[in-house]
Amino acid sequence: MPDSASETVTIAAEEAGGRLDRVLAARIPALSRSRLKALIVAGQVSIAARTIRDPAAQVNSGDTVTVALPPPEPATPQGEVIPLNIVYEDAALIVLDKPSGLVVHPAAGHASGTLVNALIAHCGDSLSGIGGVKRPGIVHRLDKDTSGLMVVAKGDRAHRALSKQFANKGDGPLQRGYLAFVWGVPDRPKGTIDAPLDRNPRARDKRAVRAGGRHAVTHWQLLERFSGRDGKPVASLLACTLETGRTHQIRVHLAHIGHPILGDETYATGFKSKASRLGPQTQAALATLGRQALHAYLLAIEHPDTEEILEFRSELPGDLRRLRDALTVDKGQVASERHK
Predict the structure, then answer these.
(1) 108 HSE (CA, 13 A, CB side)
(2) Domain 6-68: assigned CATH number
(3) What is the reported pLDDT for 116?
(4) Which of 9, 36, 156, 225 could form a disulfide bond with 130, CB atoms 3.0-4.6 angstroms apart?
(5) Which tens digits make up the pLDDT trace of 48-99?
(6) How far, in Å, are 79, 86, 162, 333 from residue 122 at the CA level?
(7) Do domains 86-166 and 175-338 have the same CATH topology?
(8) Cα distances (Å, whole numbers) of residue 339 to 224, 226, 231, 322, 334
């Protein structure tokens, strides 16, 4: 299919009776539901050659739905020369190691200086437009203060293929691994958190575990334990893998099981008093960290053109290495004191 032509979907029996915009959003992961609504209202969606302008229209089994994709508009954000740590690049995609503090998309309070601004400058005319605006194809995101590996699609075909991988919910070659320094030590070596996530009804910028929310699954494994100044376990290092990719998923899930991430000002506020249990070097490292201690260290994808499995790993950045070193030194000092 040409990159700028259309998407065609045949409605399955189990989708019959569903809303047009919702069914299309599930079937075409590269297009957001809001973008699909806009295309429907604009007369760009048809069923059996009949234009449908109601996003809530019900679909029937066997319907052939065609979504016309207009040529992308010029990007609203402007390109900015911002250093990027690119670990892999070819004609289809870019894999980069995002530093903490870098916002992915322009938004309120961050109109410039974002990853998108940097990518527009870096990519030139080789940009995805499947989302409606000519821009780099951001198929997944990392929070501003989470560091680590991200993949970006350069063209529409790669954008579609990568979006499908991220929508497959654990089925397929995609792997996303994170390292998280958390408060406390789990009572077993590994586990799975299967808890739906939705907006927090008391704070719209936060997420919470809520019945009826979106399916979310995080797997974790205990890598290291760290003792506090009293010799008792105070923190640990976990390796987390995502089966789904919801907003703030790891941060909310770990807080949900009682092990929020060190430095997380949103989901670990109730643990601030525990800082007094940390050793002196760890207290100093945490005080200067200024972000949640979470790093995306592993990314594996299937290349959209060659179907080769590409795997990338990223070492802990300097601030998290200093935190780990401090936790290890303080743990060792406690052990030494206890054996005197």
Answers:
(1) 1
(2) 3.10.290.10
(3) 86
(4) 156
(5) 889 999 999 999 999 999 999 877 666 667 788 899 999 999 999 999 999 9
(6) 8, 11, 20, 47
(7) yes
(8) 21, 17, 11, 26, 9
The tokens describing 207, both together, are 């997420």
Phi, psi of 11 (to 5 degrees): -70, 125
Indicate whether this model's pTM tops 0.70. yes
Number of other residues whose CB lies within 10 A of the CB of residue 329: 15
Residue with tokens 């699909």: 36
Q: Is the pLDDT of residue 330 over 90?
A: no
CATH code assigned to 175-338: 3.30.2350.10
| Count of C-beta atoms within a 10 Å radius of residue 128 | 27
Collapse the DSSP code of 295 into the 3-class scheme (helix H, G, I; strand E, B; otherwise coil) and give the result.
strand
Instruction: Sketch the domain layout of the chain as residue ranges.
Output: 6-68, 86-166, 175-338
Query: What residues act catalytically?
Result: 143
Report the C-alpha gap between 49 and 52 in whole angstroms: 9
| Residue with token string 């234009």 | 51
Q: Tell me: pLDDT of 205 over 50.
A: yes
Spatial separation of the C-alpha atoms in residues 253 and 251, rounded to whole Å: 6
